[in-house]
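Reply to dn_fold:

You asked what the input looked like. This is it:
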Amino acid sequence: MGKDLRNWNPEDEAFWQSEGKKIANRNLWISIPSLLCGFAVWLYWGIITVQMINLDFPFEKSQLFTLAAIAGLTGATLRIPSTFFIRIAGGRNTIVFTTALLIIPAIGAGMALQNPDTPLWQFQLLAFLSGIGGGNFSSSMSNISFYFPKKMQGYSLGMNAGLGNFGVTTMQIVIPLVMTFGLFGGESRTLVNTSGTLIGKIPAGTETFIQNAGLVWLLALVPLAFIGWWGMNNIRDEHVSPDIPNPIGAFSTISGMLLVGFVTAGFGLWLLLPAGVGGSGFMVSKWFVLPIVIALTVFLLKMIPGSVGQNLTRQYKIFGNKHTWAMTVIYTMTFGSFIGYSAALALTIKVVFGFQHLMVDGVMTHSTANPEGPSALMYAWMGPFIGALIRPFGGMMADKLGGARVTQWISIAMVASALGVAYFIQAAYASATPQDFFWPFLGLFLILFAATGIGNGSTFRTIAVAFNKEQAGPVLGWTAAVAAYGAFIIPKVFGEQLSAGTPEYALYGFAIFYAVCIAINWWFYLRPNAYIKNP
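and this is what came back:
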């Protein structure tokens, strides 16, 4: 434990049964909770902002939507450098260091939330740093892909990603509960609006400890950093991490590459955001900015002098493979939808069903509190829970039936579910009693989440089969990086369309994208004479 591994060959059955399986599983079961905490810290702004509304923090709803969007874009951008960490810095070094870095935004959020006068820019900075947790997915998936034989890639990657994704559900259950008592001390604040937890509503006038939303993650992050250092390994073979520096050198390399991601993400956010929330005011279209951010990040990483740039030249060969681009689009459909809906669902429930939508003097208004509205904190956890829980089963189904075939089935289900959600959200957002439409809305959203979870597992299987053992890890990281922009795009699109009074348009757009993915998956992997038949 903790030692560097050489001559790692999980495809050798004798080696796998004698020692490989034990080592691989140990690394997997340390990786999973580390990744879980990464997801929790990355996406907890979707829950924190709901409680900030309930506590009457002095911010507009549109300003609070920017916090989840900032964390989403930054986390996605940091996945690009994270894709290449394993070969350059080693698996053990990467997972330990990036897990420890999450302590910074967790402490910061706990401190900032104690003061209702904390300015918006400080919350934005903390959301920016929370992106580290989003970036960790790419390095974690790349690392685990090297430990298991191809016949178990669907299972192992599905377990790492699926149980790691439970960070979203865990966060959505834990944060509302720990805010109900003074776990870490500090002053409480009084709820102005009704809140809730997994077990029921919490009436206005109740005391709450919102600072616990950040501080609670220290209980896991601190021990995980030590456990990872003690129990994980670097694989030093040529196709994994042959020439890594000592741990301090590895941590420095990771920090430098993360800094590149922070710079490009910050530039993109500056272009996107209005001047009132710290942006340039140029309001450049996200569809224009995101390709710039991705391309600029890839280019600047390549410009790093010395061995890092040389190493990336080898890894960048994945961009010459057409399957890299096909799987990037397909995985964006599955994981991008999962992570985007996870980030947006709580606030969407609050805004759509927590207020009455009344016609006043010929103008539709959305500001009257709905006493019969459901608590977002009671229900928002369900979607990510189902999507994460079913993800390993998606991988196992794909191991038996083929990844592309399973992906095709769930893509059709996603189109139908998105159109159904669009119908009910349109009806609710024009109703004085939106709660009448809540249960069909939630039911269809849960089906949508389940489909994304199965598809996440099946796409991993496709990648593992379609690429050789050196390229599969970086491709997993790269596709995850691009797909993670869903955590920015989906909350942003929902926010824009809610402001415009047409939230159903967001779902129509997503359904069209899913239909395009059906065609791509069929062309590359299912049609007669496909490039690779049902990998």
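The mean pLDDT is 93.
Hope that clears it up.
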